[in-house]
Design a protein that fits this description.
This protein is an alpha/beta fold and 243 residues long. It is built from eight helices and seven strands; from the N terminus they run βαβααβααβαβαββα. It binds zinc ion.
């Protein structure tokens, strides 16, 4: 399983949220074999993990052309890391800005650790691409979501594992409205509906009633971002993303 330059296929970092759902569709359009990986690093919300299964099932049912490409789902235990990197996402502290200018939801080094685990799994599974929903235009400005960081990480992984992985980040330069537009380009309004009905983004793990933009508490930073992006996309007339 170690053929550095000829590994087809992709491993999608898949949380069951809006962004990683769009990434999964994107990967299924481009790669003949796609597997998904989720991480349990001590999140408060099992609801997020459940959303993963529902989104995958909905996509299999809706898109026969993708069903033949979508392979195994993996779940890796990162609770040990979660314990080290405690933050508002892993404990019950309030979500607020810290003195560093980062939201308290920032888990230092999380994407770095996630990519090491994902790359080790991809090596074993013979998959050449790691696909993630990291985004520089996000409200959060997490330093491990920046393309510079990911370029350095890709380089380190390839040196350290003697591989030729590509870290693919289709949402890196997109606004949240453009992410909705990309979903429509990839899977039409049906994919938009799957995201609205089944994906989960809310930091507080709230499902509750369905809003125009999907389920969630409506007030946490993740819901706020998702709702504003959706409203903006609707105002624009629900366009597809034009290259
Ligand atoms: Zn929320």
């Amino acid at each position: 399983m170690t053929s550095p330059t000829t590994s087809p296929g992709a491993l999608v970092l898949f949380s069951g949220g809006q962004d990683s759902t769009v990434c999964l569709a994107w990967a299924l359009e481009r790669h003949e074999r796609v597997e998904t990986v989720g991480f349990d690093y001590g999140q408060r919300h099992a609801v997020e993990l459940q959303a993963r299964a529902e989104v995958r099932a909905a996509m299999l049912a809706a898109y026969p052309q993708w069903a033949g490409r979508l392979g195994e789902d993996h779940m890796l235990d990162l609770r040990g890391f979660g314990a080290v990197a405690q933050s508002a996402l892993t404990t019950d502290k309030a979500i607020e800005m810290t003195a560093r200018g980062l939201p308290s939801t920032f888990v230092p080094g999380r994407n770095l650790v996630v990519l090491v685990y994902a790359a080790a799994l991809a090596d074993r599974r013979g998959l050449g691409a790691l696909v993630g929903g990291m985004c520089e235009t996000d409200f959060s400005g997490y330093p491990d979501c920046r393309r510079d960081t990911l370029d350095a990480m890709e380089h380190a992984l390839n040196l350290g594992m003697e591989q030729a992985f590509r870290v693919e980040t289709p949402l890196m330069r997109l606004t949240k409205a453009q992410t909705w537009a990309l979903a429509k380009t990839l899977g039409g309004e049906r994919l938009v509906e799957i995201i609205l009905a089944d994906s989960h983004t809310c930091y507080l793990g709230e499902r509750g009633e369905r809003h125009a933009w999907g389920h969630g508490c409506g007030t946490c930073p993740a819901c706020d971002l998702r709702a504003r992006g959706f409203a903006q996309w609707v105002d624009q007339g629900r366009p597809e993303l034009t290259p």
